């Protein structure tokens, strides 16, 4: 009676622990998913029917352990859309009967006259009609150089206003404006991304029918139901279930050592197969900060004179380009003279008195308003260049021009070479910058496909076309405007060394180091990880296949088979753990 009670307790324990595994498998089959869990489920049910609880419990232990490893290896983040919404403009200042009132952005109507104060976000898409300022559009276009906003300038929602107040006229509702579009693009892309089929399930498509056929042959030959259970137990695909998550956990940890955070195990598996690399320009292929590329003086002035005079007035300005010029001048040992009566037009330029001379620094349009005679001379200096320039006039005459450029990353060439060696055969540059600049950068670094003047929706469309054509697409970006495209790509990688925000949340991987080579490191690690996972699977299946033959011939009883399978699992795990080590 005691033995019968003990056996009953074992059977009840098996029924309770195995119920979840069985139910998950049944649900999968009803949904048309033929997974690796089918053999394990049959082994559990057969163990119950033949009153062999120990063999069944060992199967349950390994099955649930493998699933726990998979859940651990496939961590997911869900804060992306929430953070985007929180960062969006919520309030607008609208003129109504000549009075200014604060309203929710959802109440904005097309044609409303709005005020955007210094330091505020543009609440909706519109056109400026009064005031001047510099507007930071980097969250939308990815370009670091502020836009000079003046009457007639198009303003995009989500852009950050600088130091001047702007009056604008709404041309779109807030929910239909550019920032709201980014929110919706990220939400849609994340919802539509197809779930990744487990590597184990792909092997199970042929391994499971083979196992069932072996069971039928063994039973037909011997007439012993015990042999069916013995085959099912040693054929339980724990090598399939364990090898991939153990190897991927090792690969994820190896990436973390390279300062690459992998947000899901599936992303690492997909990264190993990418063949197309799509890259944002500013901040990804380039440093992301404007630098003084060259100084063009007009005789009798020298480069030193231009930097000394321009720096004297620019040090009174907070404009990004002004700070860049001042830093470049100081780096060259330039000392600035005293300056008086400085007047700045936000986003356009600045002028002041240096000694007894009036010095003007700014855009061509700004210099034209203060020193119109100098404009003709500056036109020849520009010489058709599409870069960003600051023009320097002294007493109404041209003194020189300062040209700014975003420097290409020094590691870029070696990075692109490594990607090609790793199987990324096609590279594409996408940018919100003007097309001429995008093409010029692409030509300089050897990327033939370069597209400029792109809004976030345009980037998404280009990436989606590649994905829908069946390509495995790697997208690398660093700005909020890249977030929708990162979510759309097969694998999205965010460069977040200086803070990634929504870009990091939308990506499958986040690079914490300011180094593109880490992306190539991640691709190499992913390929090695999947090689080790497949190797572990084949070793495990080979040993399981041999054990199936012995079990079918009656040499291995069910309980011994379960213990033997444990030994095979340990072998598989030890091999898969190699993914966390550095390659020899």
Characterization of the model:
This protein is an alpha+beta fold. Among the domains are: 90-123 and 125-172, Calcium-transporting ATPase, cytoplasmic transduction domain A; 250-286 and 409-525, HAD superfamily/HAD-like (Rossmann fold, 3-Layer(aba) Sandwich); 288-407, Calcium-transporting ATPase, cytoplasmic domain N (3-Layer(aba) Sandwich). Helix content is 51%, strand content 20%. It has 22 helices and 22 strands. It has a seven-stranded mixed sheet, sandwiched between helices. Strand 21 (491-495), helix 20 (502-506) and strand 22 form a beta-alpha-beta unit. Helix 1 (2-30) packs antiparallel against helix 2 and helix 2 (37-49) packs antiparallel against helix 3. 51% of the residues are buried. Mean pLDDT is 79; it is low at 73-81 and 192-197.
Please give a quick description of this structure.
The chain is an alpha+beta fold. A hairpin with a 2-residue loop joins strand 16 (about 390-395) and strand 17 (about 395-410).
How does the SSE layout of this entry go?
Layout: H1 2-30, H2 37-49, H3 53-73, H4 80-87, E1 91-96, E2 99-104, E3 113-116, E4 126-130, E5 133-136, H5 138-141, E6 147-149, E7 154-155, E8 160-161, E9 166-170, H6 178-192, H7 199-222, H8 225-235, H9 238-257, E10 260-262, H10 265-271, E11 276-280, H11 281-285, E12 286-297, H12 303-314, H13 320-331, E13 339-345, E14 349-354, E15 357-362, H14 364-370, H15 375-382, E16 388-394, E17 397-408, H16 412-421, E18 426-430, H17 435-445, E19 449-451, H18 456-468, E20 473-477, H19 483-488, E21 491-495, H20 502-506, E22 509-511, H21 517-552, H22 558-576
Parallel strand pairs: 11-18, 11-20, 18-19, 20-21, 21-22
Antiparallel strand pairs: 1-2, 1-3, 3-9, 4-7, 4-9, 5-6, 5-8, 10-22, 12-17, 13-14, 14-15, 15-16, 16-17
């Amino acid at each position: 009676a005691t033995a019968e009670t003990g056996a009953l307790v074992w059977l009840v324990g098996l029924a309770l622990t195995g119920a979840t595994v069985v139910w998950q498998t049944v649900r999968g089959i009803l949904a048309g998913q033929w997974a690796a869990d089918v053999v394990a489920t049959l082994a559990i049910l057969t163990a119950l029917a033949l009153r062999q609880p120990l063999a069944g419990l060992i199967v349950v232990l390994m099955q649930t352990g493998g699933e726990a490893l998979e859940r651990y290896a496939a961590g997911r983040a869900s804060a992306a859309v929430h953070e985007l919404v929180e960062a969006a403009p919520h309030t607008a200042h609208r003129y109504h009967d000549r009075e200014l009132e604060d309203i929710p952005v959802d109440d904005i109507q097309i044609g409303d006259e709005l005020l955007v104060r210094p330091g505020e976000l543009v609440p909706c898409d519109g056109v400026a009609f009064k005031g001047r300022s510099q507007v930071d559009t980097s969250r939308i276009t990815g370009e670091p150089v502020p836009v000079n906003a003046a009457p007639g300038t198009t303003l995009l929602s989500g852009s950050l206003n600088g130091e001047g107040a702007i009056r604008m006229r709404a041309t779109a509702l807030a929910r239909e404006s550019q920032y709201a579009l980014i929110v919706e693009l990220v939400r849609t892309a994340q919802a539509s991304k197809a779930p990744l089929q487990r590597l184990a399930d792909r092997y199970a498509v042929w391994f499971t029918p083979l196992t069932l056929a072996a069971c039928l042959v063994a039973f037909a030959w011997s007439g012993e139901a015990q042999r069916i259970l013995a085959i099912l137990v040693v054929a339980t695909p724990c090598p399939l279930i364990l090898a991939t998550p153990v190897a991927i956990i090792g690969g994820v940890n190896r990436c973390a050592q390279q300062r690459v955070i992998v947000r899901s195990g599936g992303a690492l598996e997909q990264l190993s197969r990418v063949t197309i690399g799509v890259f944002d320009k500013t901040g990804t292929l380039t440093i992301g900060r404007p630098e003084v590329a060259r100084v063009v003086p007009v005789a009798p002035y020298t480069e030193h004179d231009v930097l000394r005079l321009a720096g004297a007035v620019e040090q009174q300005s907070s404009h990004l380009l002004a700070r860049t010029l001042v830093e470049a001048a100081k780096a060259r040992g330039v000392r600035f003279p005293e300056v008086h009566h400085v007047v700045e037009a936000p986003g356009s330029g600045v002028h002041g008195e240096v000694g007894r001379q009036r010095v003007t620094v700014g855009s061509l349009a700004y210099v034209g308003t203060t020193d119109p005679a100098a404009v003709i001379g500056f036109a020849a200096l520009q010489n058709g260049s599409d870069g960003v320039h600051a023009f320097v006039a002294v007493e109404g005459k041209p003194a020189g021009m300062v040209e700014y450029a975003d420097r290409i990353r020094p590691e870029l060439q070696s990075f692109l070479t490594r990607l090609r060696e790793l199987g990324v055969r096609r590279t594409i540059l996408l940018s919100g910058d003007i097309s001429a600049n995008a093409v010029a950068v692409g030509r300089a670094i050897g990327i033939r496909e370069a597209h400029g003047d792109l809004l976030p929706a345009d980037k998404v469309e280009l990436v989606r076309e590649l994905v829908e054509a069946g390509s495995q697409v790697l997208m690398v970006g660093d700005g909020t405007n890249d977030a929708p495209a990162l979510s759309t790509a097969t694998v999205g990688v965010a460069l977040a060394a200086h803070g990634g925000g929504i870009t990091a949340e939308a990506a499958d991987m986040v690079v914490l180091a300011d180094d593109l080579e880490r992306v190539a490191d991640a691709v190499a690690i992913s390929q090695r990880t999947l090689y080790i996972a497949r190797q572990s699977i084949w070793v495990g299946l080979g040993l399981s296949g041999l054990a199936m033959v012995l079990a079918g011939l009656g040499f291995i009883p069910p309980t011994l088979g379960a213990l033997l399978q444990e030994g095979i699992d340990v072998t598989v795990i030890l091999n898969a753990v190699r993914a966390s080590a550095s390659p020899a």
